[in-house]
Amino acid sequence: MSQPHLLLSFLGFFIFFSSSYVYASTHSNPPQLQALNTKPEYINPKLPPRTLSSSKKFEGSSDLVQLRYHMGPVLSSSPINMYLIWYGRWAASQKLLIKDFINSLSPATAAAKPSVSEWWRTVSLYTDQTGANVSRSVLIAGEYTDKTYSHGAHLTRLSIQQVIVTAVKSAPFPVDHKNGIYLILTAQDVTVQDFCRAVCGFHYFTFPSMVGYTLPYAWVGNSGKQCPEVCAYPFAIPGYMAGAGPGALKPPNGDVGVDGMISVIGHELAELSSNPLVNAWYAGEDPTAPTEIGDLCEGLYGTGGGGGYIGQVMRDKQGRTFNMNGKRGRRFLVQWVWSPELKACAGPNAMD
Question: From the CB of residue 66, how many other CB atoms can be counted at a distance below 10 Å?
């Protein structure tokens, strides 16, 4: 169960990757292609944190982080069948962007390094009591769109489960209680209990009395119109920071709300997979408020993150910031997760 996913980070000028080419010619030789300035520049400035902060992130590595296994299951069945529920009105381009991220998780996806599938590999290091790992294979097994807002434009945690009930009652959207997880994505005009105030997303499981089975699910909202400075930070910044520093970062795919959702979706899927019934991997003694593998690394995106730094990330020639690559040439900015091997936050763009 995720705690507030307030991306507490800090702005900055990051990696500028230039790959310009020039032709060199001589009187006796034909033109030759020469590569110049191919080495990225890594810049990781410190900026003040946001005041609205209840993050549990642990900046760096330490034996003091008592992440423990509590004998529950992880999502080890392969593939993990993901069922998407689009609640409200979504543009086709927004749906495609989110699906490209999800389809980039599996290792079979062709993508440049550092890649989304390498990021998911860290999640797959978590095991259950039989030694079975979280599956590396994630498949979008079905989609359902609720354009009519069948449960209203405001949802509670309980009514989100009713949205799942509505979806699974619509054939051929199944109740997959063996390999399935359900991802509810609410449009930018849908308000949700505690959204923007305390959470940007969360995960839990359905009650058998409502759905008939215990089904792991996650919810993430599009904050683009409601609170981008909270849930899409650092692609939007709070008003009190206006004029301080370089300003908001440019999102890698040009959509502040959906680009901001991508990192929250990654956060929730990592925790849903390693702690689907809230009795597997988490720190702390209270299972109703666990600190999970995403919470420990909230706001960290690269090497050198922590203490006011987001970490070393990349910036393309158009000024768009990212730290990993996905399918079809997509780029994403996704927070790191806690590695059980390194006992530290880890990501595929690590420099050490």
Answer: 11
